[in-house]
């Protein structure tokens, strides 16, 4: 950690930040992108690594299969369903690729998502479709969603007789908005089309019972809001889809069934997955449901204050936001180059870590609220944005 002499934090807050090992040289407003691992979870990962290192052969041959299944049982207890429906992946990206590669897509088939889908997922869907001679369909949503019906109706009208998969985000990345996944799953079922929910941001940010959503597949990351070490992706698959669902990278377990196929994808570091329960306990220790409610309130207050002080629009409604909020900072400058310069200046001139990005031809900024954030953080963001928007106004015009 760098010297405390550059700390931008009040002394009372250094301890909260220190529990996460975050540098006090910055205000951290981007829990959503990469999470932050509490020290106790990192130490548990180190303990596990050391234990494996004492006898790697014995560990992988004798202990690893049961350890993975017992950790899957912890996931089921926390996120719903049966352990045999849960598998671990590196991340949501890997889980989504697994589902895409498991589809029996043929030439002329279609796969459908929304214009709010995560950029990397759009790219993966496009390439898989192109390779199979299938088409990628994108239901266009307005950048600022006003109600759930807009999402459901856009998807309903984009569904066709050749649609073979629907992909929808639980909490969008660019607009930090909770989408009506239960209603979309119902629409998909009524239309006889399987649905994959991209819940990369959901575990630990909102209460979750995955099987109750009624989807075919659900992926989430424990390494964002659940405090797990990076590399703790999760995939739930409805039993009827176990037979067809395999990881994108195939190994010994391929012909041994769904869970075995994901549990062994060659030799890997299993410690991010084996830390799932320690991470979930750390989440509980910081309040569990109370922490989620607290983060939601802090983000809502921050969003209200920023929107009013900067006179900008915030995406979604208080009901469709959780611990993040996204703003249209400028109707102009919606390209990656401007966004990168804005984010860089925010970090290096104002010592604030928050994602600025281009989406729907506009310049956006997203905030997150985690236990180590307090209202003063968002207050610091306002003058920084004012300075940067004014300084860059000619370039953004
Ligand atoms: C909606 C959404 N889907 C997928 C991902 C990919 O997550 P990961 O990088 O952990 O694979 C992200 C990452 O932020 C995301 O926001």
Report what the structure shows.
With 397 residues, the chain is α/β, with parallel strands linked by helices. It has two domains: 4-38 and 287-396, Aspartate Aminotransferase, domain 1, CATH 3.90.1150; 43-281, Aspartate Aminotransferase, domain 2, CATH 3.40.640. The chain has 15 helices and 13 strands. The chain has helices spanning 11-20, 31-34, 39-54, 56-79, 92-101, 119-132, 148-158, 181-191, 210-213, 258-263, 271-274, 276-285, 289-310, 336-348, 375-396, and strands at 27-28, 86-89, 110-114, 135-139, 163-169, 195-199, 217-221, 233-237, 313-314, 324-333, 352-353, 356-359, 362-368. The strands form three sheets. It has a seven-stranded mixed sheet with strand order 2-8-7-6-5-3-4, sandwiched between helices. Strand 6, helix 9 and strand 7 form a beta-alpha-beta unit. Helix 13 packs across helix 15 (375-396). The longest helix has 24 residues, at 56-79. It starts with 10 loop residues before the first helix and ends with a helix. The protein binds pyridoxal-5'-phosphate.
């Amino acid at each position: 950690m760098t010297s405390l002499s550059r700390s931008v934090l009040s002394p009372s807050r250094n301890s909260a930040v220190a529990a996460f090992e975050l540098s006090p040289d910055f205000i951290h407003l981007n829990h959503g992108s990469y999470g932050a691992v509490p020290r106790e979870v990192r130490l548990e990962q180190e303990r596990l690594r050391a234990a494996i290192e004492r006898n790697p052969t014995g560990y992988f041959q004798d202990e690893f299969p049961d350890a993975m299944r017992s950790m899957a049982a912890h996931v089921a207890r926390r996120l719903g369903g049966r352990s045999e429906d849960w598998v671990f992946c590196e991340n949501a990206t890997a889980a989504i690729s697994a589902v895409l590669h498991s589809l029996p897509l043929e030439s002329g088939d279609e796969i459908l998502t929304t214009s709010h889908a995560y950029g990397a997922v759009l790219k993966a869907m496009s390439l898989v479709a192109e390779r199979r001679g299938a088409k990628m369909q994108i239901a266009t949503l307005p950048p600022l969603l006003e109600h759930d019906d807009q999402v459901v109706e856009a998807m309903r009208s984009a569904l066709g007789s050749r649609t073979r998969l629907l992909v929808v985000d639980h909490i969008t990345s660019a607009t930090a908005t909770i989408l009506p996944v239960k209603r979309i799953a119902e629409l998909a079922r009524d239309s006889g089309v399987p649905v994959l929910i991209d819940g990369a941001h959901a575990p630990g940010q909102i209460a979750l019972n995955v099987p109750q959503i009624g989807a075919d597949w659900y992926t989430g990351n424990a390494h964002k809001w659940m405090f797990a070490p990076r590399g703790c992706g999760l995939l739930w698959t409805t039993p009827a889809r176990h037979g067809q669902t395999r990881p994108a990278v195939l190994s010994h377990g391929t012909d041994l069934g769904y869970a075995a196929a994901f549990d062994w994808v060659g030799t890997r570091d299993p410690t991010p997955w084996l830390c799932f329960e320690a991470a979930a306990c750390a989440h509980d220790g910081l309040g569990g449901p109370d922490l989620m409610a607290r983060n939601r309130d802090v983000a809502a207050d921050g969003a209200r204050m920023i929107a009013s002080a900067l006179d900008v629009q915030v995406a979604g409604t208080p009901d469709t936001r959780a611990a993040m909020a996204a703003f249209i900072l400028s109707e102009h400058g919606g390209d990656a180059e401007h966004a990168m310069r804005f984010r860089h200046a925010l970090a290096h001139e104002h010592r604030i870590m928050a994602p600025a990005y281009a989406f729907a031809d506009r310049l956006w900024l997203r905030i997150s609220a985690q236990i180590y954030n307090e209202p003063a953080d968002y207050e610091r963001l306002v003058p920084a944005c004012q300075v940067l928007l004014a300084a860059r106004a000619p370039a953004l015009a």
